[in-house]
Amino acid sequence: MTTRWMWMGSALAALALGGCESGTADGSTASAVSGVDGSDGAYSDGSGDGGDRNPPSSGGVDANDGTDGRGGSLDATDAADGRDGSTDSTDASDGADYSYDGTDGYDYEGDSSYDGYDATDGYDAYGGVDGTDGSTGSPWVGGDDSSATDGTDTTDGTDATDGLTPGGNFVDVGVNPFVIAEADPLSTFAIDVDTASYDIFRQYANQGLLPPAKSVRLEEYVNAFEYGYEGPTKETETPFAVHVAGGSSPVDPGVTLLRVGIQARRMEDLPKKDRNLVFLVDTSGSMSGWGGPGETKLELVQTMLNAAVDVLDPSDRVAIVTYAGNVSVALPSTSVSNPSTIKSVISSLGAGGSTAGAAGIDLAYAEAQNGFIAGGINHVVLCTDGDFNVGVFGTEALKALIEEKRKTGVTLTVLGVGTDNLNDDMMEEISNSGNGTYAVLTDSDDAILYGTTRLTSDMTFVAQDVKIQVTFNDDEVLAWRLLGYENRAIADEDFTNDTIDAGEIGAGHDVTALYEVIRTGGTIPLAESLPPDATKSLVTEVSEFTEGELVRVAVRYKAPGATPETPADSTESGLLASALASEFSQLDGATRWAAVVANMAELLHGSPYADAAAYGFVAETLAPLAGNDAKRTELVAYFNNIAGLLANTWD
Length: 651
Description:
By secondary structure, the chain is α+β, with helices and mostly antiparallel strands. 22% of the residues lie in helices and 21% in strands. The protein has 11 helices and 22 strands. Strands 12-11-8-13-14-15 form a 6-stranded mixed β-sheet, with helices on both faces. Strands 4-17-19-7-6 form a 5-stranded antiparallel β-sheet. A hairpin with a 2-residue loop joins strand 9 (290-292) and strand 10 (295-296). The longest helix is centred in the C-terminal third of the chain and has 20 residues, at 630-649. It is globular and about 65 Å long. Residues 1-167 have low confidence and may be disordered.
């Protein structure tokens, strides 16, 4: 059970507590707590841009100095030439493995991924090809590590407790701390409508297993649900409406829960645009693996594609590009008015070979350019488990490639398939670079639902480069903490920098962000490992508040298709302290549901701010708040599957 303590006193008191400034909301993601990534605990480059951070390694195993394996120290456990060729080598010192912490074996430029020396990439789950333990067989090994002989690595690179997806590549985004409002009243981040993290949870919970803690991104759990916010009127130019509400926390009465909700204009209120779609389908050998109950990953993709063809308009056009060891155009751009032609190609797809993902991306964007519709929607949908192993395949290299491609006006959705061997971190990063979204298919019902409903909204943007900046009135607020969005932070001073890439919002999407707020004169509940952040913001001027105003919420955005040089528009909303609900039960239904989902995500992530009280709140409140909503009642069933395991964690 997490030990908590209370912090109070001068907002600007000196906090000489080991430099622990993990995950600040302004993007200055600082060092890991207690040196968990190495002996000096340092993993942040302090860039403050919210995107160029060095995630922690797993317990310092890959470097004596705490650097994370991308820079690669040259100690006794690393090979000096960046290969895993020496007998005692367990990590690549030149960062060629793109794994951040050097423990997952993605070092295809070295010579150990398949020779039994590194044993941590999970490839042995398909036949023991790394030779270390001979634990061959299904990837569904349920805790029988099936990778390293010492049992130190399965899905999250640290232990063998879950064993569900031995090759899954997840990176812990950390947890935002409380921030002292007098020192930094500004919280700035890019919106995020991805749901992949929650999709991954669904597959684990369906098996009665907890998801890897590293896979949990709180905002993706919250934003997996619809909240019924009122949208913008037809008369307003702003393509979304902003709603702010708050009241007493359900877990700690000394904490105020603040909710910011955004509702995008719905599809039926938008003019119809013709669509030019290119489905980039991974047909490599890994796609023949388990994707959902009774179906391979490729079969899930085929189910989704057939469902999409059934609902796309006859004026839309579809192309299919495949990639394995080689790439090809399986279907040139074809009108959806010829569905039998398209479905014939879909049914002919087969899986086998290696994965030349970057070459596939190049060809898909080229095909999108061939069918480019001026003024229309030009979109690539990448369907893969993310196991790129031929050509350019490191996350940073792929991000650079896709950032260059987006200049063509073609956007990108990344659709992960299954969780076995899922390269989650890479796919989330490149979807952001492609001005798109990231979701994961876990079963056939999910595939049909995505193809028939979400696909069209994910590609039909109402706004791009959407940034939120919440300003707290330090006359009313002692401290604040943003729940989630750790890897979407933007430096406060970049809020008005319109060349900064941010998030996109599609037709009908709603976006929710939650804050824990400590009112002036209150006491901050803290985990020992995360003292309050009293770093002075670089922004010295903030908006004037009206009397009694608690917060001011500003949203900055551009129209779809805008260039980095296009000036952004903005809108603002505020909330008076007098408008806060005095009891949690008095809050609106949207805020209460978001609160219970957020608390569950914190428990699953192992947040230092979660505790047994939070578990009790979720267990007692989830079902009553779900009502008759199908997706919410599904979550109740998933929670019941894992309630015992989760209770043991927080007992």
